C-alpha cells in the first residue's frame, strides 16, 4: 500500500461559534516515516494549496506559520504522528471558515526530507448558529429555593462562551430577580470536548409565575443564541371573600371566595358545626343562599381543603361578643396548615339578622366553643 487518505466525511457542515472535527487517517509507503501534518485551506480549483494557505502545522519550530486568523483555533486530536491519525478540530468557527481543506504529510523517505500532499479534500460549510441553549427548570414552588441550568450548545474546546440570564416580569417588562445568584461551570468531557453551563438560583414566588426567563449565550465573533422559557410557580394565596357578609332575613346571600394559586386550588365552603361541605369548586367558589332565615346564622368558612367536622379547629376557637362587636378567633392545626383566612375572613362570614338576640348569640358562641372542644 502507498499513500492513501481516508476521510470518512468529505462534506461537513457546522455552525458559527461552535466547532468542527475533520476525521482523518492516512497510510503511506513503507519507506516513508511521517513526522508532521499540515492542513491548508484554499480554493477547490487549486490542485495544491500554498504555504500562505496553512491553517495548521504540527511543527512549531518552522517558519511556515498558520494564517493569523486560524492561530490557536486548530488542534490535532492525536499528537503521535505514527498513529497516522490526521484528525483536527477547528474551534470558534466563523462563516468565512467555509471552504476546501487539504492535508500534507511531511517526513523522511530513505533518510531524506520528503512530503506528500493528498488531492482529496474536505469541504466545510459554516452556517449561522441555529442551535439553542438547553434550559432545565425544576418544579418551582413558592418559598423553595430553585436552580435553573442553561447549557451552551456544542461541545467545543474553543473560547469559553459568556452566559447571561434575564428575567421578564409581568407585562413583559425587563426586570431582575431580587436575590438571585448565578454560577458558571465548565466540564471537560474529553481533551477536546467541553460543556459550558450556567446556573441561576433564586427563591420563587407568586410574582414569578407566568413570567419568562431568558438564557443568552455569547460566543466569540458576536455570535449569540438564546432561549426563553416560561416559569410556572406552584403557590397558594390566602382565600379572599368578596360579597356582602351581612344580610337581613329574606335577603339572598352571595359570597365568592377565591384562592389565587397555581395550579388552581380546591375551594371549599362549609358551615362551622356542619359536617357537610356546602360547595366546592376550583380557584373560586360562590356560596349562594336564597331567602336567608335565622336558621342560616353561623360561621361560614372558606378553605383550600376539605376538612371533616371540627377536627382541625382547635380549642380556643370561638366568638366573643363585647358591646356590639363580635370577635372570632380561629385556631387551626394540621400540617401544612389549611389556608383559612384569618378572623372574619377566617370564618368566612358571620351571618346574622337584624333581630339577632344576645341570648341566641351567646348560645351560638357557647355551642361553638363546646364543639371545638369535642373536636379536639
Ligand atoms: C477509514 O476510517 C474509518 C474510521 O477510522 C474506518 O472504519 C475505515 O475502515 C477506514 N477505511 C479504510 C479504507 O481504511
Ligand atoms: C484519531 O484520534 C482521536 C483522538 O485519539 C480519536 O478520537 C479518533 O477516533 C481517531 N481517528 C481515527 C480515524 O483513527
Ligand atoms: C413569555 O414568552 C411568551 C412566548 O415568547 C410570550 O407570549 C409571553 O407574552 C411572555 N410573557 C411575558 C410575561 O413576558
Ligand atoms: C440577578 O441579580 C442581579 C443584581 O442583584 C441583577 O443585575 C441581575 O439582572 C439578576 N438576574 C436575573 C436573571 O434576574
Ligand atoms: C349588605 O346588606 C345589608 C342588608 O341587606 C345592607 O344593609 C348593607 O348596606 C349591605 N352592604 C353593602 C356594602 O352592600
Ligand atoms: C352573585 O354575585 C355575583 C357578583 O357580585 C353575580 O355575578 C352573581 O350573579 C350573583 N349570583 C346570584 C345567584 O345572585
Ligand atoms: C365537590 O363537590 C362535588 C359535588 O358538588 C362532590 O361530588 C365532590 O366530591 C366534591 N369534592 C371534594 C373534594 O369535596
Ligand atoms: C322566604 O322564606 C320564608 C320562610 O320560609 C317564606 O315564608 C317566604 O315565602 C320565602 N320567600 C321567598 C321569596 O321565597
List keywords for this structure.
Immunoglobulin-like; 376 residues; 3 domains; 31 strands; mainly beta; binds 2-acetamido-2-deoxy-beta-D-glucopyranose; six-stranded mixed beta sheet
Give a verbal description of the structure.
InterPro entries: CD80_C2-set (IPR013162), Ig-like_dom (IPR007110), Ig-like_dom_sf (IPR036179), Ig-like_fold (IPR013783), Ig_CD22 (IPR056386), Ig_sub (IPR003599), Ig_sub2 (IPR003598), SIGLEC (IPR051036). Its main location: membrane. The chain has 3 domains: 4-127, Immunoglobulin-like, CATH 2.60.40.10; 134-232, Immunoglobulin-like (Sandwich), CATH 2.60.40; 237-308 and 353-374, Immunoglobulins (Immunoglobulin-like). It is mainly beta and 376 residues long. The longest helix has 18 residues, at 358-375. 6% of the residues lie in helices and 44% in strands. The chain has helices at 343-346, 358-375, and strands at residues 4-6, 11-15, 20-22, 25-27, 32-42, 54-57, 74-76, 88-90, 99-109, 112-117, 122-127, 134-136, 140-141, 146-151, 162-168, 174-175, 181-190, 193-202, 211-218, 224-231, 233-236, 240-242, 253-258, 261-262, 266-271, 277-282, 284-289, 298-303, 318-322, 325-329, 349-351. It is built from 2 helices and 31 strands. The chain is rod-shaped and about 115 Å long. The strands form 9 sheets. Strands 2, 5, 6, 9, 10 and 11 form a 6-stranded mixed β-sheet that branches. It has a 4-stranded antiparallel β-sheet with strand order 12-14-18-17, with no helix packed on it. Strands 16-15-19-20 form a 4-stranded antiparallel β-sheet, with no helix packed on it. The protein binds 2-acetamido-2-deoxy-beta-D-glucopyranose (NAG) (8 copies). Residues 244, 246-248, 251 line the site of one 2-acetamido-2-deoxy-beta-D-glucopyranose.
Amino acid at each position: 500500500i502507498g499513500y492513501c487518505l481516508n476521510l470518512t466525511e468529505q462534506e461537513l457542515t457546522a455552525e458559527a461559534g461552535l466547532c468542527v472535527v475533520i476525521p482523518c487517517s492516512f497510510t503511506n509507503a513503507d519507506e516513508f516515516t511521517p513526522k508532521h501534518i499540515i492542513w491548508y485551506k484554499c480554493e477547490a480549483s487549486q490542485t495544491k494549496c500554498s504555504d500562505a494557505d496553512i491553517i495548521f502545522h504540527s511543527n512549531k519550530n518552522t517558519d511556515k506559520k498558520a494564517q493569523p486568523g486560524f492561530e490557536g483555533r486548530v488542534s490535532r486530536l492525536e499528537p503521535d504522528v505514527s498513529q497516522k491519525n490526521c484528525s483536527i478540530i477547528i474551534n470558534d468557527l466563523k462563516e468565512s471558515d467555509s471552504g476546501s481543506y487539504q492535508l500534507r504529510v511531511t517526513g523522511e523517505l530513505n533518510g531524506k526530507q520528503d512530503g506528500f500532499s493528498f488531492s482529496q479534500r474536505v469541504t466545510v460549510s459554516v452556517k449561522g448558529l441555529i442551535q439553542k441553549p438547553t434550559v432545565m427548570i425544576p418544579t418551582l414552588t413558592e418559598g423553595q429555593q430553585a436552580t435553573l441550568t442553561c447549557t451552551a450548545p456544542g461541545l467545543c474546546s474553543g473560547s469559553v462562551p459568556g452566559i447571561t440570564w434575564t428575567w421578564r416580569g409581568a407585562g413583559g417588562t425587563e426586570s431582575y430577580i431580587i436575590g438571585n445568584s448565578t454560577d458558571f461551570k465548565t466540564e471537560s468531557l474529553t481533551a477536546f470536548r467541553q460543556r459550558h453551563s450556567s446556573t441561576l438560583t433564586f427563591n420563587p414566588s407568586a410574582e414569578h409565575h407566568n413570567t419568562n426567563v431568558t438564557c443568552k449565550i455569547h460566543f466569540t465573533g458576536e455570535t449569540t443564541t438564546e432561549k426563553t422559557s416560561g416559569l410556572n410557580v406552584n403557590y397558594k394565596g390566602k382565600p379572599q371573600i368578596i360579597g356582602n357578609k351581612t344580610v337581613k332575613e329574606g335577603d339572598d346571600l352571595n359570597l365568592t371566595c377565591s384562592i389565587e394559586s397555581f395550579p388552581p386550588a380546591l375551594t371549599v365552603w362549609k358551615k362551622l358545626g356542619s359536617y357537610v361541605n356546602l360547595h366546592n369548586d376550583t380557584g373560586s367558589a360562590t356560596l349562594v343562599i336564597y331567602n336567608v332565615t335565622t336558621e342560616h346564622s353561623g360561621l361560614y368558612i372558606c378553605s383550600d381543603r376539605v376538612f371533616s367536622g371540627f377536627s382541625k379547629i382547635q380549642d380556643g376557637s370561638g366568638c366573643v361578643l363585647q358591646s356590639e362587636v363580635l370577635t372570632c378567633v380561629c385556631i387551626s392545626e394540621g400540617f401544612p396548615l389549611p389556608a383559612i383566612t384569618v378572623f372574619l375572613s377566617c370564618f368566612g362570614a358571620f351571618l346574622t339578622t337584624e333581630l339577632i338576640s344576645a341570648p341566641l348569640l351567646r348560645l351560638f358562641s357557647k355551642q361553638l366553643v363546646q364543639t371545638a372542644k369535642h373536636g379536639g
